[in-house]
């Protein structure tokens, strides 16, 4: 599948400078970081939540987990993890589990965790399980300019940085 059309449009519209990084097929963000030989703290993962009002995306380092209570406080919503079956309909140009962080382009409110924003550069899924986009943090923040920055994640025990 390679890069999603939605992501390509976002990168083009922002004039983003980036490189494409190919890696062996992976099934999780921790596995992706290892396969691509990149620091897990610099690999963005996108987690989708939902409630009766719709979907919310959380973008954070792959070595971190969402603190639901903090996300609830930030959003004022009692969000739950979105069902995988719904993701297929929402992200038609992506493989399940390989969501790019540009969820505002899919019409979703998006939150970017400050722990990721502090990194010098970032890698993220391009829409499949074998391609990453790599860019400097200034380029990434420009790409994510419609996302709200917040603190809602904590480092998972025993994950490599």
TrEMBL record:
GO terms for molecular function: aminoacyl-tRNA deacylase activity. CDD domains: YbaK_like (cd04332). Residues 23-141 form the YbaK/aminoacyl-tRNA synthetase-associated domain. This is YbaK/aminoacyl-tRNA synthetase-associated domain-containing protein. It comes from Pararobbsia alpina.
């Amino acid at each position: 599948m390679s890069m999603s059309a939605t992501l390509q449009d976002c990168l083009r519209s922002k004039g983003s400078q980036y490189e494409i990084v190919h890696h062996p097929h992976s099934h999780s963000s921790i596995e992706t970081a290892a396969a691509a030989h990149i620091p897990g703290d610099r690999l963005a993962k996108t987690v989708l939540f939902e409630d009766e009002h719709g979907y919310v995306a959380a973008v954070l380092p792959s070595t971190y987990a969402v603190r639901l209570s903090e996300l609830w406080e930030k959003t004022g919503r009692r969000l739950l993890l979105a069902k995988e079956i719904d993701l297929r309909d929402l992200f038609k140009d992506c493989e399940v589990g390989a969501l790019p962080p540009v969820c505002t382009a899919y019409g979703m409110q998006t939150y970017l965790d400050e722990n990721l924003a502090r990194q010098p550069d970032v890698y993220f899924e391009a829409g499949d399980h074998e391609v990453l986009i790599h860019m400097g943090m200034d380029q990434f923040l420009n790409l994510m300019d419609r996302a709200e920055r917040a603190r809602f994640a904590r480092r998972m025990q025993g994950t490599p940085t």
